[in-house]
């Protein structure tokens, strides 16, 4: 699986940045591939290589009804010639929502389970039941986060990003944050904006990095106050920010991940969190397909159009 477009670094300019003596740019991972964009490209890359190495013909993974991971896995499985199974949280889920409709169009078989079973998805008994039902498959965890995913996300930063003092990314399952942490330079600070409600993410990330033997050279910061009520939750000021950001920069942000990161960034800039002359890089982790699901759930139209074939 190769880039269709090399990730570009796009500088951003605004009076507030000039006032605070800051430089800001965004790494447009949303542009790397039209169907498998953002951090999902990097998370799936080596997992698919491993599936082929093991001679597997089927990918099975887990996700919610509006999951970026389900969307991307369905697309890349079809591209790479795998059969795909999506185990979806919630038996009463609206299967006509844009994410699941797209997954079906890409050939993914959807298997709905109740929330109790979904919570136990990593147990031996649930995995064995799935093997009995579907046969031999290559398993990719919810959100795509495992050691191979972190190997992929550790390639996001590199020589072209070495001059930045601060790197910001949203945090969901933590695989992207861990990969970025592994490749961080001693002169850099990685700021993770959790889109989940609660402080538990700190321990989960600590355990994840310990499991993967990641010992960052730079500084790590995790912010947990910008979740807007929790995963996939939102407030009017978040939508207003996404609209404002589009008007100013013509860059689309989604309400689940990148919108919350962008809002957090701007609040921190206004409150002098970054020292003068800092060079800040924000990671656009993709996820724009979630905008369709957001509109489907809420009826709120976002200022940009997003369509994927």
TrEMBL record:
The organism's place on the tree of life at top rank: Bacteria
InterPro entries membership: ACCD_DCysDesulf, TrpB-like_PALP, TrpB-like_PALP_sf
Cofactor: pyridoxal 5'-phosphate
Keyword annotations from UniProtKB, A to Z: Pyridoxal phosphate
Ranges of residues in domain Tryptophan synthase beta chain-like PALP: 26-286
Family to which the UniProt record says this protein belongs: Belongs to the ACC deaminase/D-cysteine desulfhydrase family.
Name the UniProt record assigns to this protein: Pyridoxal-phosphate dependent enzyme
Species of provenance: Algoriphagus confluentis
Lineage: Bacteria, Pseudomonadati, Bacteroidota, Cytophagia, Cytophagales
